[in-house]
Specification:
16-stranded antiparallel barrel; transmembrane; membrane; ion transport
Length: about 375
Amino acid sequence: MQKKLIALAVAGLMSAPAFAQSNVTIYGVVDYGYQWTGDSRVSGVDSRSALDGGVSAGNRIGFKGTEDLGNGLKAGFVYEMGFGRSETSGGTISSLNRQSYVSLSGGFGTVALGRQYAPQHLMIVQNIDPFGFGKGTVASLANVYKGDARLDNLVAYVSPNWGGFSFVAGWTNNFANDESVENGYGAGASADGRAWAFSPSYKNGPIYVGANFHQIHFNGAAGSSLTPAQVLAGQVVSLDAIKVWDLAGTYDFGVVKLGAIYGVRDEQGSLANTDVKLKQWAVTASVPVGAAGKIQAVYGRRKAEFDAGSDGKSSQWGVGYEHALSKRTAIYTAYADVNNNSSAETTRNGYAAANITDATEGNGVAGGGYERGFNVGIRHSF
């Protein structure tokens, strides 16, 4: 009898944690490749050649799970961390810099709270850019099409699908970092940086049409030093607001999937003559090669209209190939060429680059300001 009780107790100890973890998935991406970038606009900088991490997709590890609450309700969570671009023996994990949120789903749709992807980013990465709008790929649309990737403290709502139509809406009281002591930052500030977003879409068979509208309000004092939010946005002057709209669409012909996007990004400065309006567009293509390969191509242009000075103009073309070795492992290669006019060369917001070795949407000198790029590598997802 005693042996039976002990056996039952051991079985209970072994089964309890297995039951508790049955709805939790560990996932991630490990991506490394060779990357060459050249023709820098920075004086004294020639080219860069290196083995980098996160070349086609950011290296990450995450945990996600769901719990059935009954009555059609489900709770869920995502907790995702990113690794540095080139890990070394002294490298560290950049904790929680990707996603961290909890959600509740039902017949009404999904409500999620926490750090999440911005609806604009999801629209582009899931539907338009064949390279995935990543900051690592030299040919990514993100090099020339400026966007916002993630928002902190976001309350997001994803609607049900009504015959192909759905929408995502979101609002945050502070889109970068923690809430401040008095809901403000900087001298004279009255509130943390706020943002809202709305992105409707229609997807049915080979057709996809989507739109995005979002605004970011910094609420910083004019002439103050950079706020954390402004640093994340890659700015060099204080901003009052960023107002964005985008319209995109794709059609899958089977032999080729074609896409296009057009958008306006109005960055309103808090100082005189610091406003800039970015008018940007791109066309994309993805061509399947056999059952496991695909050719990727993108061409994009951006025009920066400044309050002071002539317009900055940038363009990029890129081509690549990706081949799936299995459902989780792929090899890839890409080449990109960027062109900037003289006004774009001397301004940050007007400039585009194929380097993507910094964290400011690839359009700054911090990463070398390269205008040519080539990469080849391997990516494994688990």
